[in-house]
Write a structure and sequence with these properties.
By secondary structure, the protein is of the alpha+beta class. The chain has eleven helices and twelve strands. Strands 1, 2, 3, 4, 5, 6, 7 and 12 form an eight-stranded mixed beta sheet that branches. Helix 4 runs antiparallel to helix 5.
Length: about 350
């Protein structure tokens, strides 16, 4: 059995400038991190004693004879692109719920690609794995997704990621003294709103609105540039990032009506009233996880105010997608890209 472990991510700044239509015209930049919450994918050869050939286990259980019968879009698409000549059993487990703004769908795609290519000795470099995950999500599955989630899932770390107009990207690790990393982690609080949503639907509206919201997207990019500078400037307090988060969230809310809801607005206002200096809803919007930047002395006050929500502790993760377990000797079975 092969088991891959792939991190989820927190996008702090620049979200929206990583959609391909925007990148091709303007380029994009994001600042954020992968975190120590993970998606786990296990793959094993399924013995040929069953009526079905493939077994896929996630929130549902699929028993199918052919790849094109698979309902799960990422599993169907990855196996169609990398067709095995044997039956497979694929299991998915995760530390956080799906459709929650943490890049879970991209972590799944990256983790599955990582495991399937490891199984058949067709290992991809980090750059290749990132591009392949982006290609499968955007061109094969045809999801309305950006390009940052896949890169963070592959590389891990606290980074700035720049997206070039020609499709290339550059990952620039943000190296901070241990004390400043501690200040950063000690100033953030993460809560689950309890609302899940399909990010692709919300992203579709944002993409359709791009032409009429160029000024907001350019402002979001400028805020990301400023955040990158402040984060590394020892003269700037970590909490100064909070006002940038607040400004960026205001810009993002203007990109599409579905980005926020009255319930999300109430949560955000409650956090700010309790002492947060800034925050944002993670992912495309509409629900999922919400992040606040809070002065450490006021952390408990904010947690008490939002006690009906699930608080999630986290830390930065630096490894990216990796193989945790491999009981196979490298099989000589061939998988071909179609």
């Amino acid at each position: 059995m092969i088991i891959s472990r792939t991190p989820f991510r927190i996008s702090l700044f620049g979200g929206g400038t990583d959609y391909p239509d925007w990148i091709r015209q303007h380029g994009g930049a994001v600042v954020g991190m992968s975190i120590n919450k993970y998606c786990y994918i296990s793959i094993r050869t399924l013995p040929p004693f069953f009526e079905h050939k493939h077994r896929i286990v996630y929130s549902k259980i699929e028993l199918v004879r052919k790849i094109d019968e698979i309902v799960h879009p990422a599993v169907r698409s990855v196996l169609a692109e990398y067709p095995p000549n044997e039956g497979l059993e694929i299991h998915h487990d995760a530390d956080l719920p799906a459709r929650s703004g943490m890049g879970s769908s991209s972590s799944f795609t990256v983790g599955l690609l990582k495991a399937i290519t490891e199984k058949y000795d067709d290992v991809l470099s980090k750059e290749e794995l990132s591009h392949e995950a982006i290609r499968i999500e955007q061109e094969v599955i045809r999801e309305n997704v950006g390009c940052q989630d896949q890169v963070w899932a592959v590389y891990g770390g606290l980074n700035r990621i720049d997206f070039e107009k020609d499709g290339r990207f550059k990952v620039s690790p943000i190296e901070l003294p241990a004390g400043r990393v501690g200040d950063l982690m000690g100033s953030m609080l993460l809560f689950f709103t309890g609302f899940s949503r399909y990010a692709s639907d919300i992203a579709k509206e944002q993409i359709e609105n791009m032409a009429s919201h160029q000024s907001q997207l350019k402002s979001i990019r400028e805020i990301a540039e400023e955040a990158f500078v402040r984060l590394q400037d020892p003269k700037e307090t970590i909490l100064s990032l909070g006002e940038l988060l607040n400004d960026s969230w205001k810009m993002k809310r203007e990109l599409a009506q579905s980005v926020s809801t009255s319930e999300i607005d109430e949560i955000y206002e409650a956090g700010m009233e309790a002492g947060a200096v800034g925050g944002k809803l993670l992912g495309a919007g509409g629900g999922g996880f919400i992040l606040f930047m809070v002065p450490p002395p006021l952390r408990e006050k904010v947690r008490e105010r939002l006690s009906r929500l699930i608080h999630v502790s986290f830390d930065i993760e630096y490894e990216g997608s990796k193989i945790m377990h491999n009981e196979y000797e490298k099989t000589q079975a061939h998988i071909g890209k179609e």
